[in-house]
């Protein structure tokens, strides 16, 4: 996540960034945090917002982690369950950074030095990438559970899931490197405060940074999420034999909430890039938009780390009356039974087709890559199964 913004300079303007060893570097088109720091209303509202996110998100995500690791101990955990665990870890980790940002707002200056400045925002960006990749994997898992239950069952092995999640975390860590590289402590000697903010030595670096972030963290993975889940919902809605499971509604809520909280942030990134590619009044107007909106959209994106536990509570509110604090475990246990039920239904369908053909004749059936090849009266017929 990027820091809250303040008045922008002209494209050719430079801001000084001072490293811990007093080596000065120059930042092109520095955003600054002058407005946020100098405005009492902004500082107070920002502190309250971050404190609220931490007070809701830290115990909420800790409860989810506890429910999965302890309440479900010794029980089979579905892929959805494991993915939600990783999502809770990512969200909880980024919320642990809120004391640094609240202190910055209260003190009106960044007092933690350059290393923590870089690491804190690197971890924020890592959480952004990890969250969207985990949500994308969650959607693809639901797609396979509905359309290819045999394949889903074969891929839901512990070693496969572990390797995929390890790859996601390593990839997220690598993709977050620009957030580390482009972060510096900027000193404003006139107003006597320091700011931890993006520092690009050229307009090209600025364009690359924001374009890369929005492309990889949103424009590429989110369409996959939307398409996968749209197909799942359409399939379940058109089915005559089952209603949409509770877990489908939960994941849909997670996806919609993620989009609502992150789309404004990426829109501001796009505006920032366009402002760097244009000149004159158009550029100035776009920069003013990023100036007044960066703080709000960043806070909104940060709040995404605390909402998922609330969604779980709403999705399983009736289970709480029966199972108490174990309601989340019961909610997630349903995903295991669900995939087993889907596979059993497919097997029953196959057995029925083997016994009786479409005209009452005996048939031979073979399944290949999701296609049933049926021999009826010596002729090969195929149909796609889901």
TrEMBL record:
One of its GO terms (cellular component) is plasma membrane. Residues 60-312 form the G-protein coupled receptors family 1 profile domain. GO terms for molecular function: complement receptor activity; leukotriene receptor activity. It is a multi-pass membrane protein. CDD domains: 7tmA_LTB4R2. GO terms for biological process: inflammatory response; phospholipase C-activating G protein-coupled receptor signaling pathway; positive regulation of cytosolic calcium ion concentration. The chain crosses the membrane at residues 48-70, 82-107, 119-139, 160-182, 215-234, 250-275, 295-315. Keywords: Cell membrane, G-protein coupled receptor, Glycoprotein, Membrane, Phosphoprotein, Receptor, Transducer, Transmembrane, Transmembrane helix. PROSITE patterns: G_PROTEIN_RECEP_F1_1, G_PROTEIN_RECEP_F1_2. It is found in: Cell membrane. Pfam families: 7tm_1 (PF00001). Belongs to the G-protein coupled receptor 1 family. This is G-protein coupled receptors family 1 profile domain-containing protein. It comes from Leptobrachium leishanense.
């Amino acid at each position: 996540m990027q820091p809250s913004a303040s008045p922008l300079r002209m494209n050719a303007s430079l801001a000084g960034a001072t490293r811990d060893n007093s080596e000065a570097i120059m930042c092109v088109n520095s955003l600054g945090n002058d407005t946020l720091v100098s405005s009492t209303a902004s500082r107070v509202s920002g502190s309250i917002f971050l404190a609220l996110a931490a007070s809701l998100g830290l115990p909420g995500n800790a409860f989810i982690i506890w429910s999965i690791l302890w309440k479900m101990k010794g029980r089979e955990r579905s892929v959805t369950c494991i993915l939600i665990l990783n999502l809770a870890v990512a969200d909880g980790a980024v919320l642990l950074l809120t004391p640094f940002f609240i202190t910055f707002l209260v003190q009106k200056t960044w007092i933690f030095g350059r290393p923590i400045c870089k690491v804190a925002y690197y971890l924020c960006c890592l959480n952004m990438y990890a969250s969207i990749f985990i949500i994308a994997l969650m959607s693809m898992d639901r797609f396979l559970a509905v359309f290819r239950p045999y394949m889903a069952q074969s891929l839901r092995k512990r070693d496969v899931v572990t390797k995929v999640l390890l790859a996601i975390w390593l990839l997220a860590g690598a993709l977050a490197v620009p957030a580390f590289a482009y972060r510096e402590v900027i000193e404003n000697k006139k107003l006597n405060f320091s700011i931890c903010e993006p520092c690009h030595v050229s307009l090209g670096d600025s364009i690359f940074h924001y374009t890369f972030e929005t492309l990889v963290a949103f424009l590429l993975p989110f369409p996959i999420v939307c398409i996968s889940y749209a197909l799942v919902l359409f399939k379940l809605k058109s089915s005559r034999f089952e209603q949409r499971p509770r877990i489908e509604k939960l994941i849909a809520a997670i996806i919609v909430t993620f989009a609502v909280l992150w789309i404004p942030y990426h829109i501001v990134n796009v505006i920032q890039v366009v402002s760097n590619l244009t000149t004159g009044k158009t550029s100035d107007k776009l920069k003013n938009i990023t100036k007044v909106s960066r703080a709000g959209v960043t806070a909104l994106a940060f709040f995404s780390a605390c909402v998922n536990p609330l969604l779980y509570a709403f999705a399983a509110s009736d289970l709480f009356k029966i199972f108490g604090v174990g309601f989340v475990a019961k909610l997630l246990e349903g995903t295991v039974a669900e995939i087993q039920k889907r596979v059993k239904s497919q097997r029953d369908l196959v057995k029925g087709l083997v016994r009786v053909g479409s005209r009452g004749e005996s048939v031979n059936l073979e399944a290949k890559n999701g296609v049933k090849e049926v021999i009826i009266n010596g002729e090969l017929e195929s149909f796609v199964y889901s």
